[in-house]
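hey so i finally got around to running the thing on that chain from the lab meeting. sorry it took forever, my laptop kept dying and i had to restart like 3 times. anyway pasting the input first so we r on the same page abt which one it is
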Amino acid sequence: MLPSENRLRRRQDFATAVKRGRRAGRPLLVVHLNRDGEAKGQTDRKSDSSPHVAEGLPSARAGFVVSKAVGPAVVRNLVKRRLRHLVRELLPRLPAGSLIVVRALPPAGTASYLELEHDLDAALRRLLRAEPTGSAPTGAGR
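ok and heres what got predicted. didnt touch it at all, straight out
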């Protein structure tokens, strides 16, 4: 299970990650990553004693979107459990304070654990190696 301090729960946090973060799509899922969700004050924390802040550094937090298009409740819950387990293993790779939203696409309902793992890992690798917004694109010299 994903620890409480690493979960996204509020609509505003989901919206921040989706609207202001970078996106990487794969056949089974779409991953939205906002590396600076906490750093720019986009979430309003009441105090530093929040469970989302450990020793002055905010932890990375994740949320999941699995719609009815993925399948019936049993299938959706299975997909969510698999994704939570996979993201829990990947959280140490994420920058502190980042927000990640994983949205399962309809084919995720019939995908195996290894297929979900492959797509999630590929999407995160792509997002983490991408240059921050505002820098020159890699093909700018052509």
